[in-house]
Design goal:
The structure holds 3 protein chains of 3 kinds. By secondary structure, chain A is of the alpha/beta class. Helices cover 31% and strands 21% of the residues of chain A. An 8-stranded mixed sheet of chain A has the order 6-7-8-3-9-10-12-11, with helices on both faces. Chain A has a 4-stranded antiparallel sheet with strand order 2-1-4-5, covered by helices on one side. In chain A, helix 3 crosses helix 4, helix 3 runs parallel beside helix 5 and helix 5 runs parallel beside helix 6. The radius of gyration of chain A is 21 Å and the shape is globular. In chain B, 52% of the residues are buried. Chain B is α/β, with parallel strands linked by helices. Chain B contains 13 helices and 11 strands. Helix content of chain C is 63%, strand content 1%. Chain C has a two-stranded antiparallel sheet with strand order 1-2. In chain C, helix 3 crosses helix 5, helix 7 packs antiparallel against helix 8 and helix 12 runs antiparallel to helix 13. The chains are: A alpha/beta, B alpha/beta, C mainly alpha. The interface between A and B is large, with 46 and 46 residues.
């Protein structure tokens, strides 16, 4: 399969802000600054990074909620923002989304079956009873009891609601499922259930997954490949195992070490970053991470402040954007 | 004498649809300089317990049925409002869950800290500002004096949480209750906040009651842990012991689930099947029985009492490293079988 | 991983397995949210009584010509206001005179039906009579017609114009939103009473010879003005709610699935603004009724011989003098109006509770 299912090429997204207060008028928020991604059919790409890094914006662009300022999102070589009519409809069928907050993503006034029926009704290809059949089949696929068909979202638990959201995303048999923090709003014991479900659905239906999570453990479980984002750029991308075993980029190292292991005393040396995450409205010069980077001293004087590092290949499957060579 | 000792706390909510037992039975202890974690999922009653201690629950609909909360020789639950106000903030500080909603959006953080200070101490505004600036820099807010005049929305999540902690420690309380202090924050910021709490605890001999659902947090920072389910503490133990040899099936389930996330890439995650019971219709026996893989018939008939576990000796002799002298309690009829399986937990 | 196109490969789902279940599940549809709302509405006694009162009043007002009341317009010159007489002392008499202002065909039919049913019998002066010998009870009942009609007019405009206006502005946003809302702002800013006075004088002007009817009666002008302004607050309120809904995840999910704006409006927005709409309505109606009373009191609303509560209150107030207190003349319309407004408010409260967002789970 040489042709990737999803390709993001040099994506830039800029927002115009009109804030008064302590921002100057008419500032531009450069949320996504040149992101390239590739996802094969049936693959799973995890997008990690902290708030403000732009990962949600990238996901929204992939799904069609956000128009790129430049660059493009290509689904099977078709550019999303340029598609019209039937082609656009087909694209919408092929990419669906699961949101973070399962309560907010379901209309509280509709029974959950209506929420799952909606994409089918809009698509219009199946008739009424066939649609209901499909919904019931989707319920079973996600492990929901058919008895919940007529219930309202507030009558369901968080885990059940998320399953409804997943059922809704599956109902048109998409090729790519985008998940924006699918487990963050859920309880611990339910998190594992949902992650298992997503993995199972992926193997069962050959779904490709693009998911965002700040929970590295979830990412590790689901992803084949991981892209780490910082302030609108991809700073490292590698197969999951490689990334976890030997992160190259200093930010990745800090991120991984910040995760607390549920094992007393097993914590490796923790890197505690200094300073606050930068604001996308005023990005640092050169490498966006340099003000907080703990490895900066190893670089030639001033290099990190002056020059933005390119995403360079490191080994066969990894890319990393850092001036410094890898040091474990 | 312990810094804080809670005995037999029971809290009921009288809702329109019927009474809900939010806190079934909670007894816990926090010593000076100790960090005790209260772990549980949403609805387990952990936040309610903390709020009940400081009489911060709206009553009605909340009703504190029984319980004592001994702090410095006084029972907090019997104190009048005036006495309580003196305790709150100055002796026991609460860092609430969401810094976004806990800070007043229309006042600068300096004003808010100063307000707290002036409520409890005879301080001029200038002096109070000094103390506030000191507290802010203590918690690691850069350019603390300038930040006094910042509004909450101008600060990042991490800074806001630090500001809340500053407000909490400015009056040098003896006990800090932190309700999910890092849930709303990024991972790297979480690390910073926790290091901060750990340092404060060391430097000031502060007692901390940490409410969380994050087992990683608990493993790295807590001295002792209480695990809550459906309003009751089902197990309590020193951290190391709890993680090494859990005695309650729920604890075991949580640990297995959390650890499996760490496991090999393709492996299926352990999860606890089923759902918690409806709070309006609690089952007659153990609340966890329906989801419990160790359950026997006796579990559905009566609530297991909270007792020191037996079977530790046997476990130790089988090669698992446990401290048989550790102070532990567990509320489970079948805990011995659970302990026996401790070796299975990777 | 197999390649799939839209229709060639077999579906993931074995839909056919669920045919039976699909049929069953439709039958199991539980009580609709309307019924639940109705049940919640009936919970409080005050709400139940308010509803009964309003229904009763509406019936009374609609059937006014049919009721065996004295004529509200029959004048007995040189009479003095007579105080109320208890029903058991003066139950009725046979002095009915069918004197009315110009009635529409339906009302005329009802009147003739009344005369054939009750003949010359009419109820006694249970609420007294005024200085022109007109029965106060009859006038209050007939007066309610105007008030309720005004309320209806305001409600309809609010619902039809206000809701669509606000929803459209909120959903579409951008320049359309700006335009629509500036219109609302301008209309809001102008004091309605000036519009009324202005329109009245303007429309009175082309009266040529004395006795020639003006273009529009006072009443019609009044209804026009009420219609023109009563939808404004609804538009604003709905727009606010729609703006919030627009950002919600389920609307985004619908958009991702390809929902068009009309679809989102119909399926997601309208049901979710319903509660707000009802609440706003129950706030506007009482104020509209009061406003009518106010205008009529000033002489700018309904004209005699037609009657409205405001007019009655005006007459009653005029008749007050330090020598004789004809309290009943002002008390009757005032009390009835107060009861109606109170009932509307209570009903509004009840409706808001009934349609309120479902309680989130106790956790």
């Amino acid at each position: 399969m040489s042709e990737p299912l999803l390709e993001v090429r040099d994506l830039h997204v800029r927002f115009a802000t009109r804030r008064g207060g302590w921002f100057e008028a008419r500032r531009e928020l450069h949320a996504v600054r040149g992101v390239d991604l590739r996802l094969e059919r049936g693959g799973a790409l995890g997008l990690v990074g902290e708030s403000g890094c732009g990962k949600s914006t990238v996901a929204r662009a992939v799904v069609g909620l956000q128009r790129p300022s430049s660059g493009g999102v290509f689904i099977d070589r078709v550019e999303r923002s340029k598609a019209r009519g039937a082609q656009a409809r087909e694209l919408r069928r092929r990419v669906s989304i699961v949101f973070q907050d399962p309560y907010a993503s379901l209309d509280p006034r509709l029974p959950v079956s209506a929420s799952v029926l909606e994409p089918l009704a809009i698509d219009g290809r199946l008739r009424a009873r066939a649609r209901r059949m499909r919904v019931l089949a989707a319920f079973e696929a996600v492990g929901l009891d058919a008895a919940l068909y007529h219930r309202y979202p507030h009558e369901l638990s968080g885990g059940q609601r998320q399953r409804v959201a997943i059922a809704r995303a599956l109902v048109l048999e998409p090729d790519l499922l985008v998940c924006d923090e699918p487990t963050s709003a859920l309880d611990l014991s339910v998190r594992a259930q949902i992650v298992n479900l997503l993995a199972e659905l992926r193997t069962r239906f050959g779904l490709a997954l693009l998911f965002i999570s700040h929970d590295l453990a979830v990412v590790r479980r689901l992803a084949d490949e991981i892209a780490v984002m910082y302030l609108g750029q991809v700073v490292e991308r590698a197969p999951a195992l490689q990334l976890f075993d030997a992160p190259h980029h200093p930010y990745t190292k800090a991120l991984l070490s910040a995760v607390l292991a549920p094992r007393p005393g097993a914590q490796a040396e923790r890197i505690v970053l200094s300073g606050e995450p930068p604001s996308p409205l005023a990005p640092p010069s050169g490498c966006a991470f340099h003000p907080r980077c703990f490895a900066r001293e190893r670089a030639p004087q001033g290099l990190c402040e002056r020059e933005t590092p390119e995403l360079a290949a490191r080994g066969a499957q990894r890319v990393c954007a850092c001036h410094l060579p890898h040091a474990p | 004498m312990s810094l804080l000792e809670v005995k037999n706390l029971r809290v009921r909510f009288d809702t329109r649809r019927g009474p809900v037992q939010a806190v079934e039975h909670v007894s816990l202890r926090v010593e000076r300089g100790e960090l005790v974690a209260l772990v549980g999922e949403s609805g387990s009653g952990k936040s309610v317990s903390a709020l009940a201690l400081l009489s911060l629950l709206p009553r009605p609909p909340a009703v504190i049925e029984t319980g004592e909360a001994w702090f410095e020789g006084r029972n907090l639950l019997t104190l009048g409002e005036r006495e309580l106000r003196r305790v709150r903030g100055a002796q026991i500080a609460l860092v609430p869950q969401d810094p976004n909603t806990a800070l007043h959006p229309l006042y600068t953080i300096g004003d808010q800290i100063v307000e707290a200070l002036q409520l409890h101490r005879e301080l001029s505004r200038a002096a109070a500002r000094d103390v506030a600036a000191q507290a802010l820099s203590e918690v690691g807010v850069p350019a603390a004096r300038e930040r006094l005049d910042a509004y909450p929305h101008e600060l990042s999540g991490g800074l806001r949480q630090r500001a809340m902690i500053a407000m909490a420690i400015a009056l040098e309380p003896k006990l800090l209750i932190a309700d999910e202090p890092t849930t709303a924050l990024d991972v790297t910021v979480q690390a910073q906040i926790l290091e901060l709490l750990a340092r404060l605890r060391r430097e000031r001999d502060l007692g901390v009651l940490l409410i969380t659902h994050d087992l990683g947090l608990v493993a790295q920072y807590a001295d002792r842990v209480g695990v809550m389910y459906c309003g009751a503490i089902v197990e309590s133990a020193p951290t190391r012991e709890l993680f090494r040899a859990p005695a309650h099936p729920y604890t075991r389930g949580l640990l297995a689930s959390a650890r499996s996330l760490d496991g090999p890439q393709g492996a299926k995650l352990e999860s606890i099947g089923g759902l918690p019971p409806d709070p309006l219709a609690p089952p007659p026996g153990c609340a966890f029985a329906a989801r419990c893989t160790f359950a026997v018939e006796a579990c559905t008939r009566a609530r297991p009492p909270s007792l020191p576990p037996s079977g530790l000796r046997a476990l130790a002799s089988s090669g698992v490293e446990v401290d048989i002298a550790a102070e532990r309690r567990v509320a489970c009829f079948e805990h011995e079988r659970v302990l026996a399986r401790a070796g299975d937990l990777a | 991983m197999s390649e799939r196109s839209a229709s060639s490969t077999p579906s993931w789902f074995r839909d056919a397995d669920y045919e039976f279940a699909a049929v069953q599940i439709e039958r199991l549809r539980p009580e609709s949210p309307w019924r639940k709302a109705r049940e919640r509405l009936g919970r409080r006694a005050s709400v139940r009584w308010s509803l009964r009162f309003l229904v009763f009043l509406a019936l009374l007002s609609f059937l006014a010509p049919l009721l065996p009341l004295p004529s509200p317009a029959a004048i007995t010159v040189a009479a003095e206001p007579a105080p109320p007489v208890a029903p058991w002392s003066a139950f009725g008499d046979h002095k009915f005179v069918a004197e009315y202002w110009e009635l529409n065909p339906l009302d005329r039919a009802l009147v003739s039906l009344r005369t054939s049913l009750f003949g010359k019998w009419r109820t006694g002066p249970w609420l007294g009579t005024d200085a022109l010998g007109r029965d106060v009870l009859a006038r209050v009942v007939w007066g309610s017609r105007t008030s309720l009609l005004v309320a209806l007019c305001a409600a309809l405009t609010s619902l039809v114009v206000g809701v669509t206006w606000g929803a459209l502005a909120g959903l579409v946003g951008g320049r359309l939103d700006n335009l629509l809302m500036r219109i609302v702002d301008v209309l809001f800013a102008v004091p309605t009473i000036f519009i009324v006075i202005f329109t009245l004088s303007f429309l009175d002007a082309p009266k040529g010879a004395v006795g020639e009817a003006p273009l529009l009666s006072r009443e019609q002008v009044f209804f026009l003005v009420v219609g023109a302004v009563s939808w404004l607050s609804m538009a604003r309120v709905v727009r606010g709610q729609v703006l919030e809904l627009k950002r919600s995840a389920f609307v985004e999910a619908a958009r991702i699935a390809g929902a068009s704006t009309p679809w989102i409006l119909r399926v997601h927005v309208l049901p979710n603004v319903l509660g707000l709409v009802i609440v706003n309505l129950t706030l506007t109606l009482p104020s509209v009724i009061l406003y009518e009373a106010f205008l009529s009191f000033l002489g700018l609303g309904v004209e005699p011989p037609k009657v409205s509560w405001g007019l009655l209150a005006a007459e009653g107030a005029e008749a007050l003098n330090p020598l004789e207190s004809y309290v009943w003349l002002i008390a009757a319309p005032a009390v009835v109006m107060a009861l109606t407004l109170f009932a509307l408010q209570t009903l509004g409260d009840g409706l808001r509770d009934a349609f309120g967002v479902e309680e989130r789970s106790e956790r």
